[in-house]
């Protein structure tokens, strides 16, 4: 059997009609040197039944003995892939047209030095497709040079927008749920600089749906993950005047999720971090809505 060039990795969970839509978008692709790797985290066999209806030898289906959860199911799907190129495609997302895979393959086939490709996307929200705003070359280059910008706002998108060479294989960190993709992108860009971006909207990404694990997270978990990410990259060691965006963002998050002073001591962080967070908490009492701070933060990011 010929080794496929691209492995489309689908970590799946429940909702058989979403998997069917995803697979339909794959089998109609003009580029056909691929395999599909599905890792099913469901407790029933409904997704297996969907796969069997396609009767396609390129689709490899694996049922997890016990549910792995997110992001371990993502990691398993990638680990089972055989292709040189890895394309993650969550089962509630799908290709936007039949040329999507062909365009992605072209980036890697035309330049062996390219390590990964991010693409633009359409937001799928309540049965509507909303074109995502284009990311300029200058903005993408700033992200490559300073990947930590993604902690202030995920300008790239969900994992389904990313395709990469198997020779550069990193694990999704299972400590994270809310910021798992952002931390992965930061780690990837710090270590692999030869990454491309295309404004072609090659995938449709489900937005704010009940099927997404992030909707089950409480506010304390979101804040804890954000703090882990900032600590991982030593942001709290920088004075505020050198890292004003950090200060604005933490204050914004505190306002948005109504974090209380007493909750800070419960966070598993260093004493220096708690001290820094306390200053953010005090600042969050200033009567500015969080969406005003968000606007200020995004304006600053755009021009620095």
List the helices and strands and how they pair.
Elements: E1 6-12, H1 16-27, E2 34-40, H2 46-54, E3 59-63, H3 72-79, E4 85-88, E5 94-95, H4 100-110, E6 116-125, E7 128-131, H5 137-145, H6 149-152, E8 162-165, H7 180-191, E9 195-206, H8 219-232, H9 244-257, H10 261-264, H11 271-284, H12 290-303
Parallel strand pairs: 1-2, 1-4, 2-3, 6-9
Antiparallel strand pairs: 4-8, 5-9, 6-7, 6-8
Helix pairs in contact: 1-2, 9-11, 9-12
Description:
The termini are far apart. α1 packs parallel to α2, α9 crosses α11 and α9 packs antiparallel against α12. Strands 1, 2, 3, 4, 5, 6, 7, 8 and 9 form a 9-stranded mixed β-sheet that branches. This protein is 41% helix and 18% strand. With 304 residues, it is an alpha/beta fold.
């Amino acid at each position: 059997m010929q080794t496929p060039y691209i492995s489309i990795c689908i970590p799946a969970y429940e909702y058989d009609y979403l998997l069917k839509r995803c697979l339909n978008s794959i089998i109609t692709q003009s580029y056909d040197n691929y395999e599909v790797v599905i890792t099913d985290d469901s407790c029933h066999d409904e997704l297996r039944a969907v796969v069997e209806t396609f009767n396609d030898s390129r689709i490899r289906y694996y049922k997890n003995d016990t549910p792995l959860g997110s992001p371990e199911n993502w990691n398993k799907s990638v680990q089972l892939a055989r292709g040189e190129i890895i394309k993650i495609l969550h089962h509630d997302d799908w290709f936007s047209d039949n040329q999507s895979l062909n365009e992605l393959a072209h980036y890697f086939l035309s330049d062996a030095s390219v390590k990964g490709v991010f693409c633009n996307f359409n937001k799928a929200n309540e049965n509507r497709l909303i074109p995502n705003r284009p990311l300029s070359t200058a903005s993408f280059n700033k992200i490559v040079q300073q990947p930590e910008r993604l902690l202030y706002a995920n300008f790239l998108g969900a994992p389904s927008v990313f395709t990469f060479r198997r020779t550069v294989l990193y694990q999704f960190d299972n400590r994270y749920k809310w910021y798992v993709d952002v931390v992965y992108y930061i780690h990837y860009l710090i270590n692999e600089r030869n990454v491309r971006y295309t404004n072609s909207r090659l995938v449709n990404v489900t937005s704010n749906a009940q099927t997404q694990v992030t909707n089950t997270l409480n506010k304390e978990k979101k804040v804890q993950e954000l703090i882990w990410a900032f600590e991982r990259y030593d942001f709290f060691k920088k004075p505020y005047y050198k890292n004003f965006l950090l200060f604005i963002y933490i204050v914004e998050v505190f306002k948005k999720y109504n974090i209380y002073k007493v909750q800070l001591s419960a966070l598993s962080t260093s004493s220096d971090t708690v001290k820094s967070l306390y200053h953010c908490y005090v600042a969050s009492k200033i009567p500015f809505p969080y969406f005003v701070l968000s606007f200020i933060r995004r304006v600053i990011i755009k021009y620095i």
